[in-house]
Structures are given as C-alpha cells and as structure tokens.
Amino acid sequence: MAKHGALLFSYAFSIILLLTVSLPSEAADQEERKTYIIYLGSLPKDELFSPLSHHIGILERVTESSSASNLLVRSYKKSFNGFAAKLTDREGETLAKMKEVVSVFPSKTYKLQTTRSWEFLGFNDKHKRNPTVESNDINAKKT
After folding, report:
1. What domain count does the chain have?
2. Are strands 103-106 and 34-39 parallel, antiparallel or unpaired?
3. 68 in the same domain as 48
C-alpha cells in the first residue's frame, strides 16, 4: 500500500512539474495581440513571387507563436505588398527593424459617422447630383 501511495505522489509531482515548466511558454502566447498593418513596398515583378508565402515566412521569423499562419489576418497582394497580422508589441517592433519592411503601424477601426453623406456635407437638394454613382445602401456590392 505504501508503494502505491509513493507511486501516486510521484505521478502527481510529475504532472505539476510539467505544468509549471509549460506555463511560461504559454504566457508568451497569451500576451495581448493587436492587429498591425505591415507594408513591404511595391510588389516584385517576378512572376514566381508568392506574396502569401513571403508574408508567412516573415511572420515565422518574428513570432513567438507556434503557428504564424494563424496570426495572419490578411495578405495584400494586388496593389501593394503587405499584410495584416495579430502581433504583440515586441513582435511589431522586431518587424519594424527588418530590412525589407517599410513600415509597421497598428490597425485602426473607424466608427461609421453617417450613412447620409450628402446631407452630412451640408449639400441640399438644389445641388446637381448623379444618382448612377450614388448608392443609398452602403453594403451594396458592385458587380
């Protein structure tokens, strides 16, 4: 019976030791992450260039997380070369110091101010308007 008690104590101690050792690494992953926009300049002319692979590669070099692709919010690849990612402040600072990075800045969420822009700007009904380019539905998709 004493052997079973010692064995049980040994298992419990081992589990507590494992949890204690793994907590600091999880604490780094739990540090507050914010969305940052990373601008890398113009797109390379190389046809074989893959912006998504390049962006994930950069993230893998600076993140302390096990899966950099899970931190990628958006990969911009049409008009400019850049991406948005969830980063800690330290990771954002590290990215900003990289040679290939032009700028890093926190993403801002803007609050909608109006859905009636014409009136908001102070125009009245006497001003000439072009209804073909106006839309009352701010969520309308252009085809």
Report:
1. 2
2. antiparallel
3. yes
Q: Return the amino acid letter for 131.
A: P
Q: Please write the tens of the pLDDT for every residue from 12-57.
A: 545 554 555 444 444 445 679 999 999 998 877 777 788 888 899 8
Q: Check whether residue 36 and residue 26 sit in a common domain.
A: no
Confidence (pTM): 0.57
The token duo for 138 is 């701010």
Same domain, yes or no, for 97 and 49?
yes
Single-letter code of the amino acid located at 138: I
Residue 21: which domain range? 1-30
The reply to whether 89 and 63 lie within a common domain is yes
3-state secondary structure the chain: CHHHHHHHHHHHHHHHHHHHHHHHHHHHHHCCCEEEEEECCCCCCCCCCCHHHHHHHHHHHHCCCCCHHHCEEEEECCCCCEEEEEECHHHHHHHHCCCCCCEEEECCCCCCCCCCHHHHCCCCCCCCCCCCCCCCCCCCCCC
Q: pLDDT of 77-119, one tens digit each?
A: 887 889 999 999 999 999 999 999 999 999 998 887 766 676 7
